[in-house]
Amino acid sequence: MAVKGPRSVMPPINAVLSPDGNTITLHSPENCDRAFVTISGNGTYLTEMVNFTDQTATLDVSDLDCGVYLITVEYENGTIYTGQIEFTE
Q1: Residue 13, burial from CB neighbour count under 10 angstroms (0-12, 13-18, 19+)
Q2: What highest taxon heads this organism's lineage (predicted)?
Q3: In whole angstroms, what is the distance from residue 30 CA to residue 79 CA?
Q4: Residue pair 12/41 in contact by the 8 Å Cβ criterion
Q5: What is the pTM of this model?
Q6: CA–CA separation, 56 vs 4, rounded Å?
Q7: CA 76 to CA 80: how far, in whole Å?
Q8: What is the mean pLDDT of residues 46-70?
């Protein structure tokens, strides 16, 4: 009988929404300079190269409507982190 295990695991990214709901601050578990960030959901698909300073980056999300969005962060070394955020009224 074969032993089953995960083929790959995408660790979570820590994303904090600002009190006014207009920005998300990403806290990187890795020390990196920049990464591709993709936010998808609710009929929207945005990809942007962001710069990290002291392992944090801030994204403007003021144009996103209410709904659930998947956040994918891909670093230059190929590591991928994911997160999810939901905007409600």
Answers
A1: buried
A2: Bacteria
A3: 9
A4: no
A5: 0.79
A6: 36
A7: 9
A8: 91
Q: At residue 54, what is the residue type? A: D
- Kindly report the CA angle at 64 between 56 and 73, in degrees rounded to 5? 35
CA–CA gap between residue 72 and residue 84 (Å, rounded): 9
pLDDT tier at 31, thresholds 50, 70, 90:
confident
pLDDT band at residue 13 using 50, 70 and 90 as cut-offs: confident
Record the tokens describing residue 72, joined without a space: 């994918």
Q: Is the pLDDT of residue 87 over 70?
A: yes
Pull the structure tokens for residue 66: 């209410």
Which tokens go with 52?
A: 């990290």
Q: Check residue 63 and report its DSSP letter.
A: T
Q: Which CATH fold topology does 31-87 show?
A: Immunoglobulin-like (2.60.40)
User: Which DSSP letter does residue 24 get?
Assistant: E
CB atoms within 10 A of CB 49: 9
